[in-house]
Amino acid sequence: MKYINHYRYLFVCFFLAILPFFALSFPGIREYVFDNFMVSAIYNGVIIAIYITGSLCALFTILKNISAKDILIAQDASRKNSILSNLNQVLFAGEPKQCDFNLLMELDDNVSTARNQRLSFIMSCSNVSTLVGLLGTFAGLSITIGSIGNLLSSPSDVGGDNASNTLNMIVTMVASLSEPLKGMNTAFVSSIYGVVCAILLTSQSVFVRSSYSLVSTEIKKLKIIS
């Protein structure tokens, strides 16, 4: 139980990261995703790549923060950690382990800077995935509008008393609706991909921020005793 509590942010963030892939285990969702992916494959592929990048950044950051917290608790000078800018090797090098307050202030600033940069990157991934989804939406809508315009502007060969020609016109119009409907499908599918990925990345950023709070708390404790 202690192990689970220690890595709780990592586990929750990992669950959020793999949630879309876990959802594919449900037949209805899997069928929908596989059937509609190629409708806007370029936009969906870009969104998925952005999502994977943002998720990996979130997981890596939380793991580094957990390691940084352990280093600060143990006052370990032998381990390296990019979150701490390796300042722990200077802080805890002396005997007895008396921390320099100025170094602690510098360490706190470095952690705050790293937090802002990582959170900014993850949120940028979230925003870009939404924008790519919107781009796919506009592309799909433009296809729809263009197809409807072509359909309405096409000449009609129907005679007023010719039932056969009327039936042919109806069949032709119904067949011509496939292109506008394809454009609408592109619009909605790309929007769904973008919004879902943005929601999950934003949720992961919450736990990344919480993991940084753990490091900041340990630094504050060291400031008090220094």
From TrEMBL:
Keywords: Membrane, Transmembrane, Transmembrane helix. One of its GO terms (biological process) is protein transport. The chain crosses the membrane at residues 7-29, 41-63, 128-148, 187-208. One of its GO terms (cellular component) is plasma membrane. This is Uncharacterized protein. It comes from Salmonella enteritidis.
